[in-house]
Write a structure and sequence with these properties.
The structure holds two protein chains of two kinds.
Chain A: H1 4-12, E1 19-22, H2 26-33, E2 40-42, H3 50-60, E3 66-71, H4 72-77, H5 80-88, E4 93-99, E5 102-103, E6 109-110, H6 119-125, E7 130-134, H7 137-149, E8 154-159, H8 174-186
Parallel strand pairs in A: 1-2, 1-3, 3-4, 4-8, 7-8
Antiparallel strand pairs in A: 5-6
Helix pairs in contact in A: 1-2, 1-7
Chain B: H1 5-15, E1 18-23, H2 30-38, E2 43-46, H3 50-62, E3 66-72, H4 73-76, H5 80-89, E4 93-98, H6 111-123, E5 127-131, H7 137-151, E6 154-159, H8 161-164, H9 169-175
Parallel strand pairs in B: 1-2, 1-3, 3-4, 4-6, 5-6
Classes of the chains: A alpha/beta, B alpha/beta.
């Protein structure tokens, strides 16, 4: 079984110019545990909007690779975003769901993916160019390469263990998160 | 003679450097949506729900681009929670909202949200401008764009139902 912190650290290893959006909750802690960066925008709210923030960023910065790392519960709240992304076909956007099949912040209740709902199949039906379920560590390295290759839109659900981990919190100040991102990206 | 407010608004968007236009279709926005799709400097993005427009606007601004979101008043009900992000992060936002549930409404199901659209937006920290006639729409949009992008404000222009002028199901069908 894969572990979420290791998966996210592998995805963000040597991240170069990568722009990162993380959904609220565990994936925001995961990207922070991998090393906070001004070019990361971890969410503390707006559940369901991580993929759409990624789309806006990908359209504004078509030459930069954009990675959305989010949870299965967060993705399920905004499934329509996959259809919207499918229409726009941003080559530089990747959406990676760290799928523990649980709502991790609210008591580990089962999400729809625990009952067999297949997010990569949804993404493929929404015209994502690459879409896959990942269960093996060696496939995470290939996914990282795909994120940087900008031949998407790319989608992956990485199945991970349902585990409670120490919190590694990013800055809470939304203005700071926004300003540092724009300054690092736009100068 | 009614001024051509959709064309005027399109020009305001272009002058302000708006590059991304998210929308959920409304009959009242039909012409503006077409103008934005035809505009080479703009990316018109159809959304499945208005909430996506708030995420889109956030990402576009993080990436250095200006955007607006077009919706009907009913859609304001779909964006309430995510408006919190705009306030917390002081993100610029421009919503162009065509009103239903006002004078001339033929569908009672539109009335509860239409009656409360301005109140809901203001409660969530969005400044509301009421464009009550076709002559004033472009000026309100210009002011909203300026305050949003120069002062990091959240702004909504409510375009009155009498500006849109659709009063029956048949007229709505004919507009399509």
């Amino acid at each position: 079984m894969l572990h979420r912190r290791e998966v996210v650290s592998s995805l963000l290893r040597d991240r170069k110019d990568l722009l990162v959006v993380a959904g609220l909750g565990s994936t925001a802690w995961d990207i922070t545990a991998a090393g906070d960066s001004p070019l990361s925008f971890p969410l503390w709210g707006a559940m369901g909007q991580a993929a759409m923030i990624g789309l806006g960023l990908a359209l504004a910065q078509p030459r930069r690779a954009v990675l959305v790392v989010t949870g299965d519960g967060e993705m399920l709240m905004g499934l329509g975003a996959l259809a919207t992304i499918g229409v726009q076909q941003p080559k530089n956007l990747s959406v990676v769901v760290i799928d523990n099949e649980r709502y991790g912040e609210t008591g580990m209740q089962a999400t729809h993916t625990a009952h067999g709902v297949d997010l990569p199949a949804v993404a493929a039906a929404c015209r994502f160019v690459h879409s896959q379920t990942i269960t093996r560590g060696e496939d995470v390295a290939a996914l990282r390469a795909r994120v940087h290759a900008c031949q998407g839109p790319t989608f992956a659900a990485v199945k991970v263990a349902a585990e409670k981990l120490p919190l590694v919190l990013p800055p809470l100040d939304g203005v700071l998160l926004k300003e540092r991102f724009r300054k690092a990206l736009l100068g | 003679m009614q001024p051509d407010w959709p064309a005027e608004v399109h020009q305001e968007l272009k002058k302000a450097g708006v590059r991304v236009v998210g929308y959920v279709p409304d009959a009242g926005h039909k012409r503006l949506i077409e103008l934005c799709h035809a505009e080479g400097t703009m990316r018109a993005v159809p959304l499945t729900t208005e909430e996506e427009g708030i995420g889109l606007a956030t990402g576009a601004w993080l990436g250095g681009e200006k955007s607006v979101v077009l919706m009907q008043s009913s859609g304001v009900g779909n964006i309430v929670n995510v408006l919190g992000m705009m306030k917390t992060c002081r993100l610029p936002l421009v919503l162009l909202v065509t009103m239903r549930g006002e004078q001339g409404e033929f569908n009672s199901w539109q009335v509860p949200m239409g009656e409360n659209t301005a109140r809901v937006l203001e409660t969530m920290g969005v400044a509301v401008r009421q464009a009550g006639d076709a002559q004033t729409v472009a000026a309100h949009v210009r002011a909203a764009l300026k305050l949003a992008f120069e002062a990091q404000g959240a702004e909504a222009v409510l375009i009155a139902q009498r500006v849109i002028g659709i009063k029956s199901f048949q007229e709505q069908a004919n507009a399509a």
